[in-house]
Amino acid sequence: MLATTLFATAQKEDNVWIFAGNRIDFTTEPPTVTPVGIDYVTEDNITSVSDRNGNLVYWLNGTSLYNSHDEVVYSLPVEKGGFYFYGLSIVPFPGRDNVYLFVYPDEKRSSMVVSIADGSEDLLHPKITEYYAEFPFYYARKSNYTPDGVPLFFQKYGSRDFWLLYSWFNEIKVYALTKDGFSYTGKKYKVPKVHDYSYDIDGCEMTPDRSKILATTSSWTTFFFIDLDTKTGEIKLINPIEIHSMEAFAFSSGNKYMYHLRGRSLSRIPVEALGVISTDEEFRANSEYVGDLGCNIGDIKFLTSGGMYFLNEDDGEYIGRVKDCDSEHPVIENKWLRLAKNANEHKASYVLALPKTYCYPYGFTASEQCGGEVHFAYSDDNDYASLLWNFGDGNTSTDPAPVHSYTANGKYTVSITINYNSTNRPTRVVTQDVFVNNITKKLVIVRE
Fold first, then answer.
1. pLDDT digit string (tens) for 364-379?
2. pTM, whole model, 2 decimals?
3. Integer Cα distance of 45 and 35 in angstroms
4. How many domains does the chain have?
5. Are residues 421 and 373 both part of a single domain?
6. What is the distance between the terminal CA atoms of the chain, rounded to a whole angstrom?
7. Cβ-contact 269, 257 below 8 angstroms
8. Looking at beta carbons, which pairs linking 95-104 to residues 24 or more positions away fall under 8 Å?
9. Domain assignment of residue 205, given as a range
10. Is residue 66 pLDDT above 90, yes or no?
């Protein structure tokens, strides 16, 4: 039986990018591109967060935290002539409206710092609580040693709480983040050695449902595929893979494929294969060639709502797109969106890394089984009065976890309307495209 899972997100917190002097707003179609209101120096590893409607709230680069008007609301403790970019994150504080945690390295204190931006009274001018939490962090700026001690946030399944995976010298510890703050769960896991050599994890890419990651190491030839149970916070698998044929990678919005790049050639591999392969030969054998991007690029990134994006590095004026990434025939458009500012002329654009934004995967899941049967499950919090599913083919349901059988392969726009018990929470509609691919045509034999 073949089962594929698609995770629909209820929010649009990753819908605004700050990139190389450009603000790209994916809440419109086509996206709106405007210049950022200030000059800033960074290596383009920027992170941002928007509200549930896709409106930018804060963005963070290697020097400062900015509000939606591009005003500095907090300056990071950066040494003269330096700026930080490893491990930058912004996540909402669970259970606290308009309160966010922002994460950055403090080289003097040798720690990853978690500070609070409390915008509950004034979102544009939040109250800052410095050093709310700290985690040990090591980064030798003058050596080739890559950083160790970068915390990774995962949404807890069906909840606004988080799991935090913290890697420190070949060991991963799991913390919980709730409205009461951080707490250590007691769960810890050894990172396997490869050829008797220990690697430190210095970053990762996550599937949009935040259940699986491919963690990078200092070598960029050894990776770790990590499978996390987002209900319990337990790591089910850490699988080392040696990959020599990859320069950039990102997961598709439906969690089905990992796309990877070498030169201008784009390929993809099923996510499930990453849990069982171990060598570069197996990686290439399980990969499928997608096409030539038609230009050189520096990075690739998926938006939660769908589509893969990349910078056309040849001229720096365009963002390219690969659409229908979870379908049988993806489409490459290398001059899809024109930027307001040429990215190649940005002060530090040699890194050309697309922004790191955070999405919150609560809404609903859809798992396709054989014969067009799809298992749906509501996965937001439980403060609802009623649910109404629309399966995109004229059928509906009010069950929290309905099973629906489609009669034909194809794309269906599925929505769930959520009415809450709390009077101050408006009705919400979550919409996502579901692809049905497993209906087999019956062979009919006509005898004369």
1. 777 777 778 888 877 6
2. 0.78
3. 17
4. 2
5. yes
6. 36
7. yes
8. 95/160, 95/178, 95/179, 96/120, 96/179, 98/57, 98/123, 100/49, 100/57, 100/58, 100/126, 101/132, 101/177, 102/58, 102/60, 102/65, 102/74, 103/151, 104/60, 104/76
9. 4-361
10. yes
